[in-house]
Design a protein that fits this description.
alpha+beta, Rossmann fold, nine-stranded mixed sheet, BirA Bifunctional Protein, domain 2, YbaK protein, 3 domains
C-alpha cells in the first residue's frame, strides 16, 4: 500500500480534550475521529487494528465451540419488558418510538435478543450446550463519556452467550471462556489482572473482570500480593477489625466545637478513627437510608445498592435527615426517628465504646455500643475495602491500584431464560430453563487499552498481532534509485503476503519518521542513497531505540523470521 493512495491524516498538536495516552495517540495518528461526545468514526488505520482484534477474538471463540451470529441493535420494548430490564435500567438505555408509535430501544447489551434467538431453536436437552457470539455495535447513553474509546456511548462489542442444561456444565464452559480470555489478552501484549466483580444490570451470581493495571484506569482494584486475592473495589471483601473498648460505659455527650469530620473529631478527642463511627445518608423511594461504617472506612454504594435491590442511590438532602431527628455533621441513630432504614456495617455489629454524633451542633457521644444503643437495624457488608484493610483470606494488608476493564464474564444462571421462557425438554420429559453464561469484550476499548499498555512519548508500540501494517518503508530523498529500491522492497514483501505501507510522500524525513512513530508499525525500513551505496537499508524495530544497517538481500528473511510465530 502506497501512502499517497491511502486515506489518512495525522495531527501535530494534542487534541484539547485528550488527556490519556490512548486518546491522544489514536487521535493524532488518524485512527479515530470524534463525531459527537462519546461517538467516534474509525479511519482505515484504526479499522485495520480493530479487524485484527476481531479476528484474534473470533479464533479463540471458535476454538471453544462458539458459533457466530448477528442480532439487531434496534429492539422492541416488549422484548426488554420480558426480562424486566426495560423499566429497571435508567437513562443509559436509549428509548424511542418508531413511526408506528411502537416503543423501541437501541440495545446496550444483547441478553434479551440472544435468549429470544435461543428459545426459537431450543427444544431438547440433546441440543445443549451451545455458545453463540457476535460482534455488534451497542449504544449506551453514558452521562460521562471520557478517555476517547475507554468510555463511549456507541461502541463495538464482542458478546458471547452460552446455554447449558446444568449449572455444572456452565461451570465447565465458564472455565473455558476464562482461559480463552487470558489467551486473547496475552496475544495483544497484556497480562490482565482478573478480579471478582459486581454483576450489575447483567444479573447472575458470579462475575469476573479482566483488567489492565494502569494509573489511568477508571476502576479501582483491591489486591493481595501474598495470597493473590483480587476484586473490584466496589465488591471487595476484607477482614473486619472490630473496635472494642469498655462495653459497660454508657453514652456521654461531650462538646466537640468545630469538629465535624472524623479527622477533626479524632484529633480533638485524641482517639484513633477506628474508635469512631460515621453516618452516610441516602434517599431511596423518598425514604431515608442511614448507613453506619467505622470512621476510617467509606460506604460502598455498589454493596448497598445490591443489598437494597435498588438501581439508584440518591444522596439524602439535609431536610430529610433533620426530619428523622439527626443533624448533619453530628449525626447518629441514637435518639433518632425509627422512620428510616438503618444499615450498619458488620464491623460495628459487636463493636463497643465508639464515638459518634449526638444529633446536636457541636456535640458527640462517647462510649456508644451499637448492639445496645441502636434500634431496628440490619447488619451487612456495606463498607468499601481500601489499602488500610486486611485480606479476607490471609493476614496481609491489601493494596489498591487502578485499572481499565478489558472484558467480563458472568454466570447468569436462569435470570433471563426463566423470565423469557427459554426452556428445554429434559430426559425425563420435564421442562427446565436453560442455564446461561455471558462473556463480553469491548473491541474499541481493547484497542485503546493496548495503547495505554504499550506506548512511548512518540506514539503506540503495537504488538505484531494487531499492528495496522507489518512493515513500513520510508524512502529518504528524491533520488530515483531510492524510490525504485523502495518500490522493489514493497513488491517483494507484498508478494510474500506481508502487509506493507510505503511512505512515498514528498516530505522531509523528520515528518515521515514522526508519522511512523504515530502508526507504531513493528518494523521500519528507511531506504537512502548513502545506505544503498553499500547495498544496505536502515532497519529499526518500533519497540527499540537503536537502528541497524541491513543488507538488501537479507531484508525478506529478517521480516520472515520476525513474523514466523
Amino acid at each position: 500500500m502506497k501512502l499517497s493512495k491511502y486515506f489518512y491524516t495525522t495531527l501535530r498538536e494534542i487534541p484539547s480534550d485528550a488527556t490519556m495516552p490512548s486518546h491522544i495517540f489514536l487521535m493524532r495518528g488518524g485512527y479515530i475521529k470524534p463525531l459527537s461526545t462519546g461517538i467516534y468514526s474509525t479511519l482505515p488505520m484504526g479499522f485495520r487494528v480493530l479487524q485484527k482484534i476481531q479476528n484474534l477474538i473470533r479464533e479463540e471463540m471458535n476454538a471453544i465451540g462458539g458459533m457466530e451470529v448477528d442480532l439487531p441493535v434496534v429492539q422492541t420494548a416488549e422484548l426488554w419488558s420480558e426480562s424486566g430490564r426495560y423499566s429497571a435500567i435508567g437513562e443509559e438505555l436509549l428509548r424511542f418510538n418508531d413511526r408506528n408509535n411502537h416503543k423501541m430501544v437501541l440495545a446496550m447489551t444483547h441478553e434479551e435478543a440472544m435468549t429470544d434467538l435461543a428459545r426459537y431453536v431450543l427444544s431438547s436437552y440433546k441440543q445443549l450446550p451451545f455458545m453463540l457470539y457476535q460482534f455488534k455495535t451497542k449504544y449506551r447513553d453514558e452521562a460521562r463519556a471520557r478517555g476517547g474509546l475507554i468510555r463511549v456511548r456507541e461502541f463495538l462489542m464482542k458478546d458471547a452467550y452460552s446455554f447449558h442444561a446444568t449449572p455444572e456444565d456452565l461451570d465447565k464452559h465458564y472455565e473455558e471462556e476464562y482461559n480463552a480470555y487470558l489467551r486473547i489478552f496475552r496475544k495483544v501484549g497484556i497480562e490482565p489482572v482478573v478480579v471478582q466483580s459486581d454483576t450489575g444490570i447483567m444479573g447472575g451470581k458470579i462475575a469476573h473482570e479482566f483488567m489492565l493495571d494502569t494509573p489511568n484506569g477508571e476502576d479501582y482494584l483491591i489486591l493481595c500480593k501474598k495470597c493473590g486475592y483480587q476484586a473490584n473495589r466496589e465488591i471487595a471483601a476484607f477482614k473486619r477489625e472490630t473496635y472494642q473498648g469498655d462495653a459497660n460505659a454508657m453514652p456521654e455527650k461531650v462538646a466537640t466545637p468545630n469538629a465535624q469530620s472524623i479527622e477533626e473529631v479524632s484529633t480533638f478527642l485524641n482517639i484513633t478513627p477506628e474508635a469512631t463511627a460515621k453516618c452516610v445518608f441516602f434517599a431511596v423511594d423518598e425514604k431515608l437510608v442511614t448507613c453506619m461504617v467505622p470512621g476510617q472506612l467509606e460506604v460502598s454504594e455498589t454493596k448497598l445498592r445490591n443489598l437494597l435491590k435498588t438501581k439508584e442511590l440518591i444522596p439524602a438532602d439535609e431536610a430529610l435527615i433533620r426530619q428523622c431527628g439527626m443533624v448533619p455533621g453530628y449525626a447518629s441513630p441514637i435518639g433518632a426517628s425509627e422512620n428510616m432504614i438503618l444499615v450498619i456495617d458488620s464491623a460495628l455489629e459487636n463493636a463497643s465504646d465508639l464515638v459518634m454524633g449526638a444529633n446536636e451542633e457541636g456535640f458527640h457521644y462517647k462510649h456508644c455500643t451499637p448492639k445496645r444503643d441502636f434500634k431496628n437495624y440490619q447488619v451487612a457488608d456495606i463498607a468499601e475495602a481500601s489499602s488500610i484493610c486486611t485480606c479476607p483470606h490471609c493476614d496481609s494488608k491489601l493494596t489498591e491500584t487502578r485499572g481499565i476493564e478489558l472484558g467480563n464474564i458472568f454466570k447468569l444462571g436462569t435470570k433471563f431464560s426463566e423470565s423469557m421462557n427459554a426452556k428445554f425438554l429434559t430426559a425425563d420429559k420435564g421442562s427446565l430453563p436453560a442455564v446461561m453464561g455471558c462473556y463480553g469484550i469491548g473491541v474499541g476499548r481493547l484497542m485503546a487499552s493496548v495503547v495505554e499498555n504499550s506506548h512511548d512519548d512518540f506514539g503506540p508500540i503495537w504488538p505484531k498481532s494487531i499492528a495496522p501494517f507489518q512493515v513500513e518503508i520510508i524512502p529518504i530523498g528524491k533520488d530515483d534509485v531510492v524510490k525504485e529500491k523502495a518500490e522493489e522492497l514493497l513488491n517483494a514483501l507484498e508478494s510474500e503476503g506481508f502487509e506493507v505501507l510505503l511512505d512515498d510522500r514528498e516530505e522531509r524525513p523528520g515528518v515521515k519518521f514522526k508519522d511512523a512513530d504515530l502508526w507504531g508499525i513493528p518494523i521500519r525500513i528507511a531506504v537512502g542513497a548513502k545506505g544503498l551505496a553499500n547495498g544496505e537499508v536502515e532497519w529499526k524495530f518500533r519497540h527499540e531505540k537503536e537502528m541497524a544497517m541491513v543488507k538488501l538481500e537479507d531484508v525478506l528473511s529478517k521480516v520472515q523470521e520476525f513474523y514466523k510465530d
